[in-house]
Design goal:
Layout lengths: L13 H13 L16 H5 L3 E5 L14 H5 L6 E4 L2 E4 L21 E5 L16 H9 L3
Pfam family, one: Fer4
Organism: mine drainage metagenome
Protein name: Electron transport complex subunit RsxB
């Protein structure tokens, strides 16, 4: 039997195949931050809360036609995180950077990242109280 290059190949799982396809993209993400390497980041900006949320469409369940409004429902600032045609969108001028939307994302790899606010984009009003009371008030308003 003649030797063929295919005879030396081992089957791989789907997970391994996709991991191999995505590996070039993972290199552009700063280690441990989830923030693309081309986004300037300063420790001072992140500590000062001068950040805003961004939604990664390739990771977001709604962008894959799975009904999800977890981040929109959790956002305490009316209009800062909106759903348009079933897709969540951050309104940068209204996002306070409170980060309450990020931990509720149910996607296998969190679709919400906190990134430094672009220069020239003023930070809106301060985030809600730490106890989340403003979130509860907003949630109960639409259910009456």
């Amino acid at each position: 039997m003649p030797h063929s290059p295919e005879s030396n190949k081992q089957p791989i799982s789907r997970r391994e195949m996709f991991a191999g396809l995505l590996s070039p993209f993972r290199r552009v993400i700063q280690a441990g931050t989830g923030i693309p390497a081309d986004v300037p980041q300063s420790r001072e900006a992140l500590q000062a809360g001068d950040v805003m949320a961004v939604i990664g469409g390739r990771l977001c369940l709604a962008y894959h036609e799975i009904a999800c409004t977890a981040c929109v429902d959790r956002c305490p600032v009316p209009g800062a995180l909106v759903s348009e045609e079933g897709l969540p969108r951050v309104v940068p001028a209204l996002c306070t950077g409170c980060g309450l939307c990020q931990p509720v994302c149910p996607a296998p790899e969190n679709a919400i990242r906190m990134v430094p606010r672009p220069p020239g984009l003023a930070r809106p009003a301060s985030p809600p109280d730490d106890d989340g009371s403003s979130v509860e008030r907003r949630s109960s308003r639409g259910k009456a």
